[in-house]
């Protein structure tokens, strides 16, 4: 009995630490807004390359390429570059009719990192900023202008605000809410206390020379953004966040795609925990809080697993008469739900109904399955398909 109680206390200590960590940054993000961006008067516009890797994305890349040209930023100050990997010939032919650049690539095993490396090797040195999008992303018209203003304030890396392009299924609604919780806690909340925002794989902008110097060392199969984060933060390079620079991103629409995507994400999380645990601890004592905090994030469980575990803990505490488990799990679950309330926009939470609530246990199960499938994602890029179903436009 003593051993069982000890295990319960250890589990609750871990989940409690995680819950308090999330709550702290949720509150911080509410209490402090980020300052408005103002481009210095008379400063020249930065020339930008908008890089869009597209692996078998025939269903969405044409719209993204066309819409990428519709910026309020001067047309002669940026280029849209589609990195075409395994696209159909008809798609390539249509892309070449647009005023964009097309870089064709082909690999035995495709990854976003490989595609970006080839493009950066082929593109000229005339750019100041590189913006990275996913093939399904649509930039708000003023996105590049806000990026330019941020670089005028001495940032070398900034993350835009990625928001949902579609909420047409219950899974998409929950995925959209999850994204906004991430934005609030790991971007808004972190910047509010002076820490770096988290990168998310798209809607990111880098100093062009910094990215070109860094990318040859990035060989990630999945989670290339995590590798970039770790490498740059370990060098003391921080990341800004642009809450008003919107990039519309397609949310997963089915449980199967949700599981596939999360398998890739959780495999990357465990990989970079293993690679950075030791250096991250040393960085903490050396004063590199940004890097140490990023490494700590790799031990955080996915929120749906945390919420499901605490809910199971409440039920188990009732069934087995364990007051420690019941009270501890119930208090933490209440704090976690408050964290979600503080972090999620009301416009999205109002979309939660019986169908979305019923999906939560199913997605919890899918996440458990994704943990068992991690080994597959370590050596094989698990592509998330886009555009399979109609999606609502922003």
Automatic annotation (TrEMBL):
Keywords: Glycosyltransferase, Membrane, Transferase, Transmembrane, Transmembrane helix. The keyword Translocase does not apply. It holds the Pfam family Glyco_tranf_2_3. It comes from the Bacteria. InterPro entries: Nucleotide-diphossugar_trans. The chain crosses the membrane at residues 6-29, 330-349. GO terms for molecular function: glycosyltransferase activity. PANTHER family: POLY-BETA-1,6-N-ACETYL-D-GLUCOSAMINE SYNTHASE (PTHR43630:SF1). Belongs to the glycosyltransferase 2 family. This is Cellulose synthase/poly-beta-1,6-N-acetylglucosamine synthase-like glycosyltransferase. The lineage of its organism: Bacteria, Pseudomonadati, Bacteroidota, Cytophagia, Cytophagales.
């Amino acid at each position: 009995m003593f051993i069982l109680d000890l295990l319960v206390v250890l589990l609750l200590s871990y989940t409690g630490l995680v819950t308090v960590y999330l709550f702290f940054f949720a509150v911080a993000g509410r209490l402090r807004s980020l300052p408005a961006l103002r481009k210095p008067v008379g400063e020249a516009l930065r020339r930008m390359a908008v890089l869009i890797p597209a692996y078998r994305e025939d269903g969405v890349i044409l719209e993204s390429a066309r819409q990428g040209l519709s910026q309020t930023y001067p047309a002669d100050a940026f280029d849209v570059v589609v990195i075409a990997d395994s696209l159909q010939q008809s798609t390539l032919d249509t892309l070449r009719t647009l005023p964009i650049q097309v870089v064709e690539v082909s690999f035995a095993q495709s990854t976003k990192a490989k595609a970006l490396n080839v493009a950066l090797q082929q593109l000229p040195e005339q750019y100041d900023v590189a913006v990275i999008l996913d093939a399904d992303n649509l930039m708000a018209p003023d996105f590049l202008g806000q990026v330019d203003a941020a670089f005028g304030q001495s940032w070398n890396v900034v993350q835009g605000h990625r928001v949902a392009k579609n909420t047409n299924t219950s899974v998409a609604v929950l995925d959209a809410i999850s994204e906004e919780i991430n934005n609030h806690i790991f971007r808004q909340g972190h910047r509010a206390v002076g820490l770096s925002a988290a990168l998310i794989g798209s809607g990111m902008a880098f100093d062009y020379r910094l990215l070109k110097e860094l990318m040859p060392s990035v060989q990630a199969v999945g989670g290339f953004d995590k590798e970039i984060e770790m490498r740059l933060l370990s060098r003391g390079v921080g990341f800004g966040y642009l809450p008003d620079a919107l990039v519309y991103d397609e949310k997963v629409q089915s449980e199967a795609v949700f599981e596939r995507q999360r398998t890739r994400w959780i495999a990357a999380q465990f990989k970079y925990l293993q690679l950075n645990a030791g250096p991250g601890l040393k960085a903490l004592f050396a004063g590199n809080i940004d890097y140490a905090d990023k490494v700590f994030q790799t031990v955080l469980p996915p929120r749906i697993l945390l919420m499901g575990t605490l809910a199971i803990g409440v039920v188990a505490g009732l069934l087995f008469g364990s007051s420690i488990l019941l009270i501890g799990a119930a208090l933490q679950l209440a704090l976690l739900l408050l964290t979600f309330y503080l972090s999620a926009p009301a416009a999205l939470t109002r979309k939660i109904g019986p169908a979305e609530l019923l999906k939560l246990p199913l997605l919890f199960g899918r996440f458990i399955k994704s943990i068992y499938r991690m080994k597959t994602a370590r050596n094989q890029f698990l592509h998330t398909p886009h555009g399979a179903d109609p999606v609502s436009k922003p």
